[in-house]
Design brief:
Elements lengths: L2 H13 L6 H16 L12 H11 L6 H16 L2
Helix pairs in contact: 1-4, 2-3, 2-4
């Protein structure tokens, strides 16, 4: 199965789940965005935007990871979470 369709399946599976751990959600978010958009761009959000800042920081940890690698890691993490 092509990577993009596998990635989309993982996205849909995750939408139907009830993952609530904020660290896991940030990891999933960063892999998802890296897989779709690539490297994070723009300035880091200010101190008055803690949610945006956390998302930015999570994404910045993915610098250097290719979009293909990010999609593969996302799929693997979703599979791991949903097979517990």
């Amino acid at each position: 199965m092509p990577l993009d369709s596998e990635f989309q399946k993982a996205v849909e599976k995750l939408k139907q789940s009830t993952v609530s751990d904020s660290k896991v959600l940030l990891e999933l978010y960063s892999l998802y965005k890296q897989g779709l958009e690539g490297e994070v761009k723009g300035p880091r959000p200010g101190i008055f935007d803690p949610k945006g800042r956390a998302k930015y920081d999570a994404r910045s940890l993915r610098r250097g990871l290719s979009q293909t690698q990010a999609k593969e890691k996302y799929i693997a993490l979703v599979d791991k979470l949903l097979t517990r």
